[in-house]
Amino acid sequence: MTFANIVLDVYLNLVETQKSISSSFIYKRSTTTPWFSSRYTFNKDAATFTLPINLEALRGLTPLEYITDYLKIVPRRQRLYKKLWDLRISKHRRSKRKDEDDFDPDRLNLEELAAAFFDFWRGAVSADSFTRMGETLNFQGLEEFDEKQFYSVTAFCERFMANEDKKKGLQFKKTVKDQERADFSSFGKFERFKISKEMFCLFSCVKQFNS
Q1: What are the domain boundaries of the chain?
Q2: What is the dihedral of CA 153, 158, 162, 163, to 10 degrees?
Q3: pLDDT at 176 > cutoff 80
């Protein structure tokens, strides 16, 4: 099964099992999470992509490992992600799966990640967008995310979706990330370190963010 098909199944399952969303992925307001009273906008300044001083450290990294180590999240946004994580991990630990042998109480799976994005952005991350974002990070569909990885993937999603909105012509306050733009303007410096094609795909995406 392709990753796109896995995501489609995830979204269909969310629609079927969660009464808080409709078939058009529009959330009803939650009375238990007042800080989710309206949809948060996608913040293109939520995080900044950085590089290690020694680029040799990039050799062998997966996209998920890279963003976990080198995507720097602004503190005010990470505080929101923390609330989102706490909400989701609490539900996870109370789920029917808790008695399964392979249950990890400290990690969320792909469906729970998608559900968290529904909570935060009121269904604005479509199945197609989630698929393309996941493919950029080379997800296979079986990933499970610890707290730090969850923050990093959520921040990446913000940057990814902000760029999608920019393509649609939505206006943003112009913020120039000079160092990020310089770091990812040319890929020649990466070639001798033999980074993976998946990492080049990710870096190409970051370059688009700054175009």
Answers
A1: 3-209
A2: -10
A3: no
